[in-house]
Amino acid sequence: MQPLSILVADDVAEIQALVRGWLVQLGHKVTCASSGTEAARMLGKQRFDLLITDVLMPDGDGLGLIGKFKAAEPAARILAISGGSKHLPAGLCIKFAAGFGAHAVLGKPFNRQQLLDAIGMALRSDEEESPLLPHRLRSSPTKSDQRSKS
Question: Is the pLDDT of residue 144 over 60?
């Protein structure tokens, strides 16, 4: 089983740490960015199999990042996550993300298994065209299956 190279873009450090921890445990290489702008800069420096991006971030949002990522990594997959904001509900944020080309979406808060299921969905989307295999992310629930926060 070959590990995935995953870029996580979220302005909340706790979300980055939680997602990184869960995915590194499964053998994946995880790079984190605190904004859409920072994540976009990483695209030219490294190849990624999967982008996990928050939709709303203060410096470069996830919607713009989705477009840049699709242009830079056409075969890669995208999972958009969102807890919404004071003025924009999470459901609407993830609906926008799907419209911008995210292969799967997930509302915050989420637990480990929900994240893995959403990643599996992103990898299965248009499976015939994707060189990435969903079995790379299968795992059983553990005690560290805690819930994330916005």
Answer: no
